Amino acid sequence: NRETVRAALKAYVEAIYYIYHNRAETNRIVSKYQRTSDQDVLDATYTWFVKNVAKKPYPTLKGLQFLINEISSRLPQAKSAKPEQFVDLTLLQELEKEGFFGEMGKRYP
After folding, report:
1. How far apart are CA 76 and CA 24, in angstroms?
2. How does 74-84 read in b/e, with b if 16+ C-beta sit within 10 Å?
3. Which among 42, 45, 84 has a CA at the least distance from the CA of 65?
4. Would you say 27 and 41 are in contact if contact means Cβ atoms under 8 Å apart?
């Protein structure tokens, strides 16, 4: 249901902000679950994340088109698909309108 997805999306967004703000704790958690203490690996993982994961996780139509193109060779019906068919941005837009991203920015400066 919509409220469950909304709650999960809010948790995901807060996790993103937390990661950006808490590098040491993030590295500790990644170290535990990846079973590595290699600081180079941890630093590379963190650096990749902050370069590739936006604080506002809006999907891009360009990225979706790339995925459609990739699967088109295995699923010919995908060739006629348009990225807009697969996204519903209303929950992200609602969170933005309600100031949720700003709230996260204040909580995790």
Report:
1. 46
2. eeeeeeebebe
3. 84
4. no
Q: State the burial class of residue 49 (Cβ atoms within 10 Å of its Cβ: 0-12, 13-18, 19+).
A: middle
Which pair of structure tokens corresponds to residue 51?
A: 């370069």
Q: What element of type H or E holds 23?
A: helix 23-34
Supply 104's token pair.
């996260």
Query: Can you list the residues of the chain whose pLDDT is less than 70?
Result: none
Answer yes or no: are the C-beta atoms of 104 and 17 closer than 8 Å: yes
Query: Residue 96: in which H helix or E strand, if any?
Result: helix 90-97
Please give the pLDDT value at position 69.
Answer: 95
Of the candidates 59, 58, 63, 56, the residue with the CA atom closest to the CA atom of residue 16: 56
Instruction: State what percent of residues in the chain have pLDDT above 70.
Output: 100
- Give the number of residues written for the chain: 109
Q: What angle do CA 77, 80, 85 make, to 5 degrees?
A: 100
Give the whole-angstrom CA distance, residue 14 versus residue 19.
9
